[in-house]
Amino acid sequence: MSRKTVYGIFDDEEVLLNSVKEIKSNNIDIKEVYTPFPVHGLDKALGLKETRMAIAAFVYGCLGITFAGLMIYNIMIIDWPMNIGGKPNFTFYHNVPSFVPVMFECTVLFAAHLMSITYLIKCGLFPGAKSENPDPRTTDDKFLIEFELEGSTKKVKDLLSKTGASEINEK
Amino acid sequence: MQKESEIRDPLILGKKSYHDITLDVSKPVEGKANKYWWILFSISFIMFIWGVLSMAYTIGTGIGSWGLNKTVNWAWDITNFVWWIGIGHAGTLISAVLLLFRQKWRMSINRSAEAMTIFGVAQAALFPLIHMGRPWLAYWVFPIPNQFGSLWVNFNSPLLWDVFAISTYFSVSVVFWYIGLIPDFAMLRDRFNEKTAPMKKKLYSFLSFGWSGKAKHWQRFEEVSLVLAGLATPLVFSVHSIVSMDFATSVIPGWHTTIFPPYFVLGALFSGFAMVETLLIIMRKVVNMEAYITIKHIEYMNIIILLTGSLVGTAYITELFMAWYSGVEYEQYAFLNRATGPYWWAYAIMMTCNVLTPQLYWINSIRKSFIATFILSIFVNIGMWFERFVIIVTSLHRDFLPSSWSMFSPSIIDIGIYLGTIGFFFVLFLLYARTFPVIAQAELKTIVKSSGSEYKNKNNE
């Protein structure tokens, strides 16, 4: 039997959220939900795992501060110690207060950029990527649930219309 | 759904559905520019060209073409640099700090405020570049090995901290801005038809990176925005602290003070909010955003200006007190000279525009008036430019040796470069207002039901 794609389109995020909960409680798989803005509670209703972007940012930040520390140590202490106004210049810990600003900036630089790059890669976003929303109105004011079903689509369609979908399409 | 207290004023006026917001935000992009846009753009573009010519002349002949002399060896260049950097700070405060504090009113203004940040910091970055005198050697500020002809950079120097601070600030602001723009570019992409507007469709498809609004992507989007806000928040405070250390770590009377970092950060927020008001009061009219940028938004910003203005005033008085209390005669003279010396008029403008006139915001009718706010915001912009001028020039022009005392007067090239950056800033901002979604519409749609006036009335019935 061939696979069929069913779209349920909603006008309101609260109706959508109730519908998603109803569908989930009936053990029907939702392929994807497209919304024009972040709907709070939708990730929980869909059973999505928590994202680990913040953890990634922390790791990248640690990388940044390590990189900055090593760079400054190599430049200012190992490779070319400079005598500036007679200030101590042969140990890292004597100089470290004046290295703090650059180490801090590198932490932020690494964390922000590498996290953003990770985010773009994980979401498959890059210049020239094709958009995948099945209906252009989902970036405007419509909320869409996508199903990929084998066999009869009647049950899903009934459920969608019962929970308040404004349009139901089948492809 | 979020609930909000009934006594809070609505942040979105009129009957706005999600679709109405889409229409309002995409209208300036879809429509043609009006007469006023072209007039403003032409003026800005002429100023920009004048600035480019002045910069080319400076690079060709050297910074001797400026009004500098042996005594006053830093003047308009660094004044303008600090002024532009300061203006940038409000954008980051609005989009990052107010996000962390969950302030909903930021949503109508954060996009434009951050555009202002990026364009302002771009202007600021021009000044250190051209004041080097030999800008083709600008890469020497980066940590590159000695084979390139100079020694390693000096990590003990605040001027190098500045290089790191400003490049981090600029690039992180751009990324933060762009991450938020992706869903809104996608909205524009989906509004254009392949047949009737193929170029625009292509352009916004490219810019939107293939965004589709999937549930998982929104979840990541929200977390990334929050973490970027958390990272940008210490940046707001660090960048201007480091800029102030360019002065504070020197031994010049009037510069060598520990109060400088907080004093500069407050001044930056103060001037930044004034510039946001100047721009938005014009923009809300020109691109018809009256329903989204309301008097309530302006009032909130006025309260921040009142607070930061008062704190800046406190810093001025603290500086005077500390000069007297220090018992150092050079320090005392530097401040006496600021207030009563040949540059007394600059000090008077600074005091009036930064300390006295913002106090008018205690009056309810002034705080809630677009016209009064617009005029006072211009005052703050002028006052904060003079603050930097006073700090830099009056501390230098009478140095330790009275025989080398002198005055500074700007050359035509100085003036050209300054006005040129103002022109460049407005060229960028006007182009932005016609091609970008000027309001973060995806975010704004999340608060229609809690803060829109129509829903508020319905909830109260």
Strand portion of chain B = under 5%
Mean of the pLDDT scores of chain B? 89
Quickly count the helices of chain B: 17
* Secondary structure category of chain A: alpha+beta
Quick tags:
heterodimer, A: 171 residues, alpha+beta, Alpha-Beta Plaits, 2 domains, 4-stranded antiparallel sheet, 5 helices, 4 strands, 50% helix, 13% strand, B: 461 residues, mainly alpha, Formate dehydrogenase/DMSO reductase fold, 17 helices, globular
Polypeptide structure, described:
The complex is a heterodimer of chains A (about 170) and B (about 450). With about 170 residues, chain A is α+β, with helices and mostly antiparallel strands. Chain A folds into two domains: about 5-50 and about 140-170, Alpha-Beta Plaits (2-Layer Sandwich); about 55-120. Chain A has helices spanning about 15-25, 40-45, 55-80, 90-120, 155-160, and strands at about 5-10, 30-35, 145-150, 165-170. In chain A, helix 3 (about 55-80) runs antiparallel to helix 4 (about 90-120). The model of chain A has no long low-confidence stretch (mean pLDDT about 85). The longest helix of chain B is centred in the middle third of the chain and has 34 residues, at about 160-190. The two termini of chain B are about 20 Å apart. Chain B is about 70% helix and about 0% strand. The relative contact order of chain B is 0.18.
